[in-house]
Amino acid sequence: MKNIAVLVSGGGTNLQSIIDAVESGYIDGKINVVISNREDAYGLYRAKKHNIKAVFENDENKIIEEIKNHNTDLVILAGFLKILSSKFTRTFENKIINIHPSLIPAFCGKGYYGLKVHEGAIDYGVKVSGATVHFVDENADTGPIIAQETVPVLPTDTAEELQKRVLVIEHKLLKEVVKKYCEDKIRVEKRRVFID
Ligand code: GAR
């Protein structure tokens, strides 16, 4: 069984989907700790409700220590809106995954987080958007892509409406990837990711 750490900055609906999938037995893993760089993140409250250790921490070195203390096999960035240093990404190479609410390489990288991603997609006029789960390397949103799924973008959409539509598939995609990861069914060769 894999040891999982989840990092959040906000509401934590993606965290909740992982908690539920672990509790139902869909994911063969254990969430040992949830860490947030924001003290008021609702995600910390969700963790506590499920008897998971919840830590507010902004210092990256301390976050690394906390993750190491739990013998962590997988670090999930579930709406963690702080860019990680290369020290962090090298410490947990190929063990960190991130969920991003667009089809990378569109509307991603520095400055594209939360609603800003959806505003970007709407302003550009794209007809499809979606969600991406990828490994995290030392740059923002550039690591190997594990899975993507699309949703339509309607001409009348507001950023909030698009965000809602994308969130539904985020929750599904993230738990599918975490399940495969915990079963050792994900393999990376250069930028190409193979899922058995
Ligand atoms: C999600 O849409 C996630 O993809 C996004 O933040 C939201 C967090 O929602 N992440 C990024 O934009 C990362 N660049 P949640 O707290 O309800 O899971």
Automatic annotation (TrEMBL):
This protein's UniProt keywords: Purine biosynthesis, Transferase
Q: Where is this site: Raises pKa of active site His?
A: D141
**Protein encoded by which gene:** purN
EC numbers on record: 2.1.2.2
Range of residues in the leader sequence: none
List GO molecular-function terms, semicolon-separated: phosphoribosylglycinamide formyltransferase activity
Q: Which residues bind N(1)-(5-phospho-beta-D-ribosyl)glycinamide?
A: G12, T13, N14
Native source species = Peptostreptococcus equinus
Read off the InterPro entries from this record.
Formyl_transf_N, Formyl_transf_N_sf, GART
Cited function: Catalyzes the transfer of a formyl group from 10-formyltetrahydrofolate to 5-phospho-ribosyl-glycinamide (GAR), producing 5-phospho-ribosyl-N-formylglycinamide (FGAR) and tetrahydrofolate.
Q: What is the lineage of its organism?
A: Bacteria, Bacillati, Bacillota, Clostridia, Peptostreptococcales
Under what name is this protein listed? Phosphoribosylglycinamide formyltransferase
Catalytic activity as recorded in UniProt: N(1)-(5-phospho-beta-D-ribosyl)glycinamide + (6R)-10-formyltetrahydrofolate = N(2)-formyl-N(1)-(5-phospho-beta-D-ribosyl)glycinamide + (6S)-5,6,7,8-tetrahydrofolate + H(+)
